[in-house]
Amino acid sequence: MNHWEQFLAPYNQAVDELKVKLKGMRGEYEFKHTHSPIEFVTGRVKPIASILDKANQKGIALSDIGTEMQDIAGLRMMCQFVEDIHVVVEHLRSRKDFTVIEERDYVTNKKPSGYRSYHVVVDYPVQTILGEKNILVEIQIRTLSMNFWATIEHSLNYKYSGQFPERIRMRLQGAAEAAFRLDEEMSLIREEIQEAQAIFTNKMEKDKRG
Ligand code: 0O2
């Protein structure tokens, strides 16, 4: 095992474990036949090249990345409605298997790029053969519409290395506002949508039972 593999092993373990745990929450809601605030969950360990890039950009010494870089292990939880984001954050705060140490609310305070998302940084204990190792994990909670925007913007960022031509920058700002308005519109008819989803789920279950 090389140095990087050894360093990243607990991060990989944390992402794997948290994916199972956070995805499990969705199943629990389904079992209770109540609306799930979680649509889907993804997770990844930051690639080594991105860790090095970010350390370089932020002036973080390699010996400090474990304490200074909060998103080497990252999870994303996608929600249907903005209201669901707050339900998920409240749940994360109440869990006993990790401690929330920082929150960044880019839902209320969007980034200059137009980015919206709620970031929660947790201290997560990983059990290893050498004992417990605490690592930082960043959990990003966002709506499907915020995720759509962020995914598109992220890929464009690769193409332009963050230096967007004015035309693209303006379009992205406009798209961010449109995504925000879509969330607002959906919130206004949230109860109707949830009722329709409950009817659909019940019908599917009845059909399954025959
Ligand atoms: P990747 O490829 O997603 O892993 P900073 O990096 O200075 O913006 P900081 O303090 O490191 O911020 O942490 P913060 O603000 O919580 O955000 C870091 C992560 O949030 C980013 O990770 C992205 O995942 C996401 N993010 C933040 N701002 C934007 C944005 O304007 N557009 C998009 N698409 N995503 C954003 P990385 O390190 O960029 O990489």
Q: What does this 3D model show about the protein?
A:
With 210 residues, the chain is of the alpha+beta class. It has one domain (3-209): 2-Layer Sandwich (Beta Polymerase, domain 2). The protein is built from seven helices and five strands; from the N terminus they run H-E-H-H-E-H-E-E-E-H-H-H. A five-stranded mixed β-sheet has the order 1-2-5-4-3. Strand 4 (118-128) and strand 5 form a beta hairpin. The longest helix has 29 residues, at 3-31. 24% of the residues are buried. The model has no long low-confidence stretch (mean pLDDT 93). The structure holds ligand 0O2. Ligand 0O2 is lined by residues 46, 50, 54, 71, 104, 111, 113, 115, 119, 150, 153-154.
Summarize the SSE layout with pairings.
Elements: H1 3-31, E1 40-45, H2 48-58, H3 65-68, E2 73-79, H4 82-94, E3 99-105, E4 118-128, E5 131-143, H5 144-160, H6 166-188, H7 190-209
Helix pairs in contact: 5-6
The chain binds ligand 0O2.
Ligand 0O2 binds at residues 46, 50, 54, 71, 104, 111, 113, 115, 119, 150, 153-154.
CATH fold-level name = Beta Polymerase, domain 2
Say which CATH homologous superfamily is assigned. Beta Polymerase, domain 2
Termini gap: 53 Å
What hetero molecules are in the model? ligand 0O2
Percent of residues in helical segments?
55-70%
Domain unit count: 1
| Secondary structure tally, helices | 7
Strand order of the largest sheet: 1-2-5-4-3
Shape estimate: globular
Percent of residues in beta strands: 15-25%
**Model regions low in confidence, pLDDT < 50 over at least 5 residues:** none
Number of strands: 5
